[in-house]
Specification:
The protein is built from 12 helices and 3 strands; from the N terminus they run ααβββαααααααααα. It is mainly alpha-helical. It has a 3-stranded antiparallel β-sheet with strand order 1-2-3. The longest helix is centred in the middle third of the chain and has 20 residues. The protein is elongated, with a radius of gyration of 21 Å.
Length: 285
């Protein structure tokens, strides 16, 4: 069975990536570990399925379930809304059984019926069953931190966003990315580096939409997550983009330039993609 990272594991992994040659000052290190500790605090989420809708295409008919994901104690300003089909839940269940057979032993899944799938009674039964199903999965630590569970809640939206980005539809891509990033943050508190690609995609969109201040703001968020992960594939492309943005905005770009030169002095010359080149390669189906 695959072992998943706990918060203590997260701290150990981050610590292991530090080296005696780290350019971080003592103050920067202290701030980094404060942020790491804050990130590792579990966020409690609630799942509600208030409504459904029947979708009819030329050759198919199916029910989508509206899922609202709320952070406890946050009222409505932190809620995320997604839609999933029965087949999406079914695929999630199948994937989780492969990886977490022991944990999934007592988890029941609403079975398909030969007829009556679109009756109000069956739809309401499934709506309640799927709500309980998600709450149960989230209650299990290894499952709620698993890539398969997080992908179920975020991947379709990310695929759509990156498709828009590749097509030059930056406004639409940005709208979707800003919706999903909050949910990603709440789902991956123990692994803050995992949302760096999404943050960088937001930087790319803002930059191409000529919003350098907003691009820089999200770039700083991404860079803060890579302070002790300078070998990450996004680190140098992000640093180069931040230097350009800082210069354009009249901000301090010399300190960023120094970090870039330090990295180049330690590494052999390699082909480094631009931030946009990296972003358009994400979620290619």
């Amino acid at each position: 069975m695959m072992k998943h990272t706990s918060c203590s594991d997260c701290a150990q992994d981050s610590n292991a990536s530090l080296s005696p040659n780290s350019a971080m000052t003592t103050k920067e290190l202290q701030e980094y570990w404060r942020n790491e500790k804050r990130q590792c605090r579990q966020v409690k989420l609630l799942f509600e399925i208030p409504s459904t809708r029947i979708v009819e295409h030329h050759l198919s008919k199916y029910v989508t379930y509206k899922i609202i994901i709320l952070q406890t104690g946050s009222f409505d300003n932190n809620k995320s809304v997604i839609e999933r089909r029965y087949s999406d839940f079914e695929k999630l269940h199948r994937n989780l059984l492969e990886e977490f057979s022991e944990e999934m032993e007592e988890v029941t899944f609403p079975k398909k019926t030969l007829t009556g799938n679109f009756t109000e009674e069956i739809i309401n039964e499934r709506k309640l069953a799927f709500k309980d199903y998600l709450r149960l999965l989230y209650s299990m630590k290894y499952i709620r931190r698993s890539k398969k569970f997080i992908d179920f809640l975020t991947r379709p939206e990310l695929q759509e966003a990156y498709g828009c980005l590749r097509g030059g539809q930056y406004t639409k891509a940005l709208e979707i990315l800003l919706e999903v990033i909050g949910l990603q943050e709440r789902l991956t508190r123990g692994n803050p580096v995992s949302i760096v690609p999404t943050l960088c995609a937001i930087v790319v969109c803002h930059k191409d939409l000529e919003n350098p201040a907003s691009a820089f703001e999200y770039g700083e968020k991404a860079l803060s997550r890579l302070r002790v992960h300078t070998s990450h594939r996004y680190y140098i492309p992000l640093l180069e983009t931040m230097i350009t943005l800082a210069y354009e905005l009249g901000k301090d770009f010399l300190s960023l330039q120094e970090k870039l030169e330090e990295w180049k002095a330690k590494k052999d010359p390699i082909r480094v993609f631009t931030l946009k080149e990296l972003a358009v390669r994400e979620y290619v189906q």
